[in-house]
Give the backbone structure.
Amino acid sequence: MEAVKLEKVSKWYGAFQVLTDVDLSVKQGEKIVICGPSGSGKSTLIRCINHLEKHQKGKIIVDGIELTDKLKDIDAVRSEVGMCFQHFNLFPHLSILDNCTLAPRLVRKTPRKEAEDIAMEFLEKVKIPDQAHKYPGQLSGGQQQRVAIARSLCMKPRIMLFDEPTSALDPEMIKEVLDTMVELASEGMTMLCVTHEMGFARRVADRVIFMDAGQIVEQNDPDSFFDAPQHTRTKDFLQQLLH
């Protein structure tokens, strides 16, 4: 069963075409890592999957629902798709626990006590249950990103999207966030992750996708992708990244 399907998806910002005829099919439980140079369209691609960005051409089907302008369908998709951004986007005036319970209570109408129990379960999973009553400003960047992951998980999504989740972090904090993502991956969550963390890609991905100039240039299993890239652009990119 396909979790996500893109057919000939194109998107423009004014006259600039940022995505060109992108085809992609992601099976349930599959882990996809998307990499590529800056401006290659990779973040735009995953932001289209939960309609944070609107595609102008082609089809996007998520969990059997086609994304159109219908708000009902957009809401249905967003309730099944978790998203973790480069910047943590936590509410600074709310405690960690309140940040995590807000969406389940508002969107899923989960009673407060039940929402708090769920939030504590996921804060436990990302190994920071002791921070529940603190505020985002009292936490390190790595801790805040783990809270952001827990907050997404509290909606019990079927699919998780990660948009460069470690790029705003100090090097010593990157490992703790990647470890959390590795654990999620091992539990069978469908994941699409835009990242330059190639060690993570090798360890976790079922497929690595390389994008350039708004198109998917190459995709393969991690060993083939890193050890025997087929396309010149992929080779150049990996050479710059790995050396």
